[in-house]
Design goal:
The complex is a heterotrimer.
Chain A (H helix, E strand, L loop, with lengths): L25 H5 L15 E7 L5 E7 L1 H5 L3 E6 H7 L23 E2 L5 E7 L2 H10 L1 E6 L6 H5 L14 E9 L2 H6 L3 E9 L11 E7 L4 E6 L4 H12 L6 E5 L13 H14 L3 E4 L2 H7 L5 E10 L5 E11 L9 H4 L14 E8 L14 H19 L3 H8 L8 E2 L5 E2 L4 H12 L1 H13 L3 E13 L5 H5 L10 E7 L5 E5 L8 H13 L6 E3 L3 E2 L16 H28 L6 E4 L2 E4 L5 E3 H10 L13 E6 L17 E13 L6 E11 L6 H20 L30 E5 L20 H14 L13 H19 L3
Parallel strand pairs in A: 1-12, 10-11, 14-15, 20-21, 28-29
Antiparallel strand pairs in A: 1-5, 2-4, 2-6, 3-5, 7-15, 8-13, 9-10, 9-12, 11-22, 13-14, 16-17, 18-27, 19-20, 19-26, 23-24, 24-25, 27-28
Chain B lengths: L6 E3 L4 H10 L4 E4 L5 H6 L7 E4 L9 E4 L2 E5 L4 H6 L1 H6 L1 H8 L4 H6 L2 H6 L7 H7 L3 E6 L2 E6 H4 E3 L2 E2 L6 E8 L5 E8 L9 E9 L5 E9 L6 E2 L1 H7 L6 H11 L13 H23 L10
Parallel strand pairs in B: 1-3, 2-3
Antiparallel strand pairs in B: 4-5, 5-10, 6-7, 6-10, 8-9, 11-12, 12-13, 13-14
Helix pairs in contact in B: 10-11, 11-12
Chain C lengths: L3 E7 L2 E7 L5 H8 L18 E4 L2 E4 L12 E3 L12 H8 L9 H14 L5 H7 L11 H12 L18
Parallel strand pairs in C: 1-5
Antiparallel strand pairs in C: 1-2, 3-4, 3-5
Helix pairs in contact in C: 2-5
Classes of the chains: A alpha+beta, B alpha+beta, C alpha+beta.
Chain lengths: 813, 297, 171
Amino acid sequence: MTTEKAPAQERQGKKWVGQPVRRKEDLRFLTGHGNYTDDVTLPGMLHAVFIRSPYAHARIVGINASKALEMDGVFAVLTGEEVKEMTDPFDESIRAPFDQLRDYCLAVDTAKHAGEAVAAIVAETPYLAADAAELVDVEYEPLPAVTNVEKAMEPDSPKVHSNLPSNVVWNDVFDYGDVESAFRDADVVVKERLHFHRFTSAPLENTVVIASYEPISDTATVWSNNQRPMLNIPFISKPLRMPSENIRFICPDIGGGFGIKNNSYPYLVAAVLLAKKTGRPVKWVETRSEHLEASTHGNEVLYDGEIALSSDGTVLGVRARAVHDEGSYMRREPIGAINFIRHATVGYKIRNLKMDISTVVTNKAVVGPNRSYGKMQQCYLIERLIDCGARQLGMDPVELRMKNFVQPDEMPYENVSGCRLDGGDYPGMMRRAMETFDYEGAKRECDEARKQGCIMGIGVGMGMDGCPINAALIRVIDPKRQTSGDSEAASIRIDETGGILVTTGSVPQGQGFETTCAQIVADELGITPDDIRVAPGFDSATHAYTAFSGTYASRFAIVGAGAVYGAGRQIRDKIVKIAALLMEVAEDDIELADGQARVRGTNRSMTLREIAHVAWRDLARLPEDLEAGLYTHYVYRPKFDMPEANKRGNFSFTYSYGITLALVEIDAGTGKVKVHRLVVMDDFGRRLNPLIVEGQIHGAIGHQLGAALYENLYYDDEGQLLSSTFKDYWAPTAADFPEFEVEYLETPSIATPLGTRGGGEGGGSPLIAASNAVDNALAPFGGHITDSFLAPERILKQLQQSSDHQTEIESGG
Amino acid sequence: MYPANFVYERPETLEEALELLAEHRNGTKIIAGGATLVPLMKLRLATPERLIDIGGLRDLAGESQRDGHLVFGAMTRHVKIEDSANVRESFPILHDLVSQIADRQIRNMGTVGGGVAVVDPGGDWCPGLLALDGSVRCASKRGERTIAARDLFLDAYTPALEPDELLTEVRFPLPPAKSGGAHLKLQLRAGVYGVSCVSVQLTLGESGSYENVGVGVGGVGTLPVKAVVAEELLKGQEPSEELLRRAAEEVSECTEFISDIRGSSEYRKEVTKSLFRRALDIAARRAKGETVEVEYA
Amino acid sequence: MPKRQVTLRINDESYTAEIEPRMLLVDFIRTLAKLTGTHVGCDTSNCGACTVHLDGRSIKSCTIFAPQAEGHEIRTIEGVAKNGELHPLQQAFHEHHGLQCGYCTPGMIMSGLQLLSRNPTPTRAEIRADISGNICRCTGYQNIVESIEAASKSGKAGDWGQAPWKGPSET
């Protein structure tokens, strides 16, 4: 396996960081030797299948598994009643009395969404478990279900949780600046009712859990493709009534996460219980239907938004009521609902903002982290309002944005909610985007095409992604919660033969950490990435970690890289110290290059291997106060503060941003949208590996364009998820996408040691640009986009209503 | 996710297969490519007790011309038809149809016999067969017979075959000169079931009038439909905007249009009208000798 | 229901086992032949993560019962690299960052091999159409298309997946 040789030029002394090094992890994936959780088998392992509610809301009258248990090779059943006895409910993030919301690993007393697991059965093989599951007889008493979020807010709505006073389980108002005056003084006010639709990043690998349990020591080992092992261990240890130290968590290779694999912890609890019950390791492999019905959905929001503008295009203020349809349990919510605060006003100098946010439970699947968690939704709100404002003013939407951008010389800029934007050139990026897109030329092309009867439109969108997340956000939800900040850890060991092993608490799901970590360490130690082994996956028994470890919120490039860089510096310092001692020179005279420690200006040197050997084996040569060995553990902690009393604060550390320009055409006979051109600009600060960053951008475009044009989780009025398989949930294929034209603007972050910003989630600019482009295309027909899902049927209807209207005028009716 | 258990038979000759069918008339299903049947079985929507795998009956595969018909053996894989230069040149409607089925892997596995016999409401072969007034041959121990397309589709997933019959051939009458056809489908995403699919086959008269038009519609109701009223309306007529508009209206009334996740019945009607107009246009252009490509959009 | 003894030829090796006929080919490959490179990503034959070659044709191994594959030659991702040397298509994926999490990659490679054996010089549009039976959630497909195109242009054609295995002539 080859790594790219760096060209002769060095940037700030970095040879490897910043280079498009080909990935170390590729070989095993390319040859079918990846080690995903379903590839793991243990002796005596049994297989679990969940029995799930067909009703959106039903009382579980009784579960009879006797016929199933009679089958040969069927071992055990677990029901909600047992779970209620054996475990404590999960912690909630919401305030009393709503923290009485009861959430267990199986439905207890009632099933609250179609597909919720009500029981589990374990058998020798997955096929047999499926047969056995059919014989488990569950008696349900269907109850009225509520699937419309506004109905759920009404006092006489069926209650999803009968022990709560209302389905509105959390509400708060965030009032920054003087919104009242802004709207009073405005020349133009535009009101929009917008719906951000429910979709999921649906990673190709579904959730898989294996649990084994040892009764004498009361210890468990869990294998799962979960993104946040070190948050989830304490999270499940409480329900399991086990000390968290007694749970070992192993993440093998993960086939995509995108946030969706954060919240699989109920299944972790169920698997441990099943392992306890049967005395054998138990594996559960989620099917795609289960994944779509019962894992995690992205935030679905209903906005009533308003934007106040002056006639010259200055945005004076924005206010909105946001109602979040959370599904039946809150789990990590309302973090997604409050995540707007992590960039709040995107790249604009909007000094007055008021957000009135409610989170409402309904009889649908649970909402949770999904690529650009709650942040894309806020960008959508702001960007659609800006576009509608531009339309009202008769102003070019690009021009209006330019007028309101934070300027590069205003950085760092503290926005109205306390976000400290860490650099960036928004107008510069917009100009570059317009140039690449040939904005004026595209507008002319559109006009020409319209004259020929084609329905074409141009749209622009900006996305912003504040990362990582300051856990003090949870204090804003509930001031009694004592969490804040973020951290990540890394360890480096150079053994006595000079072998180098790096571990981090970052849990990779395709982001290439084995390569970027190696690049960072290679630069510090003067070696090549090939010389370094980065431990794959995650194992709480062997990897460095902190309480915040995991991959989510685009944090790796900041905290993961920060930790590895810090560890690299530390071990470098120790190597230099030992080399200086052994060669009897000053530390400043030592330089590390080509795997050696050299005395500058001479040809005296020692290899890293020789130094390591002494550090481990030849201890009498080391001074007493120097710790033996070459091992370091480093924790990186960005400087996060507590929030201010009025809910202001810097809840992210870096602010990645991107702008998309899209040219679309609508098929007049079907309403289907074709994207002719998509120009995407991004700035995630300094790129550790430009090849990997570009891949992340492509992936984010894929998800966001996919969501805009193809992916929607349809529920019917009875709460049945109609798009519950890949036959009906249309994750796009290569044939559905245009060629992406991607460019990168690199302005270093002033906040991080390596100048990196978090990248990977994207801020939603492709999704937003698609909405704005279709809106632009429909404008001549009086059409208007109010939903982030661009359903062809709705678009066709808008076109036809216009032609009916035309016909009416023509016929004098 | 996992099918229920079954007994698996793999006859080596057609006779063996027919013997098995005669012996086990009930609870038995034939598996050819399996592209439709296996997914149904995995969801346990089909739970046959016995599966007869005709994959080994190599004599049942192949393209030929016989008695004024283009004939495909039932086991002819979709990909073979897609790759057939003869089909592409002389029967482009069939090339349109087969190349828009699902995806490459499914086309490598699925067969024309399976595609016709399964009577999938969203399938592509059935409207094509109806538009072209095709037919199938089936065999049993009792003998052989031909079933015309318009008699073949009884209900969703229910062809007019007896339980002991095996579909052996799918036949399309070779069209006269100045004929052309097209098969268009609206897929909301590549490879998924269409909102609607329309097959149009026509022959043009001397003056450019529609001598004969066949229209098949699929994906809009529980069954594929032959739009006979629209066909009658067009027959012998000169093309005109008004005629085409009325014909499209008739096509959108040819059956009860369903509402589902792909669209409401209203949307399906609108889409069907558009597809019909476009297919008719392409068919006419091909009838005049023009080469027109059709692909997923 | 009786079990059935089945022998499958996978990557030029024979694997014999007594199985329930309902065992899907992908499960035979993963659990009996212990070749876990072929993956499962859905339950409705849509995602293509399970793509393998049967007599040189790419098929979805989750949509065929193991006994149906008897008498045919199956090739999985593990049978693509030869003597530790990557196939030019695998090398191209590595060069052009055509994979991220790697879960769709075996299926993509098998589809790519078959595409290039049918059409050695595809356009980008043809590539996109031909891999439309393989879903990827990480890459947005851009670099996958890039990789396959690069491989087709590299002139290092080599074995594209038709020779050398000699299965029965296909039906």
